[in-house]
Design a protein that fits this description.
The chain has nine helices and two strands; from the N terminus they run H-H-H-H-H-H-H-H-E-E-H. It has about 260 residues and is mainly alpha-helical.
């Protein structure tokens, strides 16, 4: 590999944005279908009939979660991990870390989709407007974070975005790709013969709690920003799972 000093345009543009953005769009149909199914069952009063026959509402949602989690693991996560390894997009250690983050975040992603389903009264409305909800909770915040120049806003939004479970996977993958990028840069630097002043930053651990991201301003000044890492994404996945489970139960029992 040829060593080139890291810059915002190189690792933020090509390495840290494109694969996570593709992953966001790939998740869209897998979260849309459960929403449509739940709205359709609500229209047909399927859950109401099951509850009248003695089914506990908690069992209903638990079965939904287990079934949809199996679909996501089989049809989304497994092919994603295999293609990441085969194409070399992510290193072997990085794939293991990403798999752990994804497995922990998928239940929260589904619970968040279940909660959004309460907004829609018909499956046609769900089909039409879910894309907008998905865009404004995942894709738009990602673009805004990459566009804003105020570092305090960037840091605050990065932590706030962890409340949306899909962003936990996206952020985890971004940091893992960033770590792989810096590892390759250090390997290239070791054979470049350049003085230590040109040495790239040390790569973050694949499951670090936070990591330091360097940003180069228009005047050439380098600023270091402490951002949430994959370890924080794991904690966020656990917390949002508890939060959205409670919200789903009380919303369903109290309002529906």
């Amino acid at each position: 590999p040829v060593y080139t000093p890291p810059s915002d345009q190189s690792h933020n543009g090509a390495v840290m944005i494109l694969p996570p953005m593709v992953l966001q769009f790939a998740l869209l149909p897998f979260t849309l279908l459960p929403v449509i199914q739940i709205v359709h069952e609500r229209e047909a009063k399927v859950k109401h009939q099951l509850c009248l026959m003695g089914l506990d509402v908690r069992v209903y949602w638990a079965v939904k979660l287990l079934y949809q989690s199996g679909v996501l693991l089989t049809l989304f996560l497994a092919p994603t991990l295999v293609s990441a390894l085969v194409t070399g997009t992510v290193s072997g250690e990085g794939v293991a870390a990403f798999a752990l983050i994804a497995v922990c975040a998928l239940p929260s992603i589904l619970l968040f989709a279940f909660l959004i389903s309460f907004v829609f009264k018909t499956k046609e409305a769900a089909s039409g407007f879910y894309l907008l909800a998905f865009t404004f909770t995942t894709i738009v915040p990602t673009i805004v974070v990459q566009s804003v120049t105020d570092l305090n806003i960037v840091k605050g939004m990065s932590y706030a975005m962890m409340l949306i479970p899909i962003n936990q996977i996206i952020k985890g993958l971004s940091v893992i790709l960033y770590a792989d990028f810096l590892k390759k840069q250090q390997e290239a630097f070791a054979h470049s013969g350049l003085p230590p002043a040109f040495k790239p930053p040390d790569p973050p651990a694949y499951l670090c709690w936070t990591y330091k991201q360097q940003s180069t301003g228009p005047d050439g000044d380098v600023t270091t920003l402490e951002m949430p890492g994959p370890g924080f994404c794991l904690l966020a996945a656990f917390c949002t799972f508890i939060l959205y489970s409670i919200c789903l139960y009380y919303l369903d029992v109290r309002l529906y």
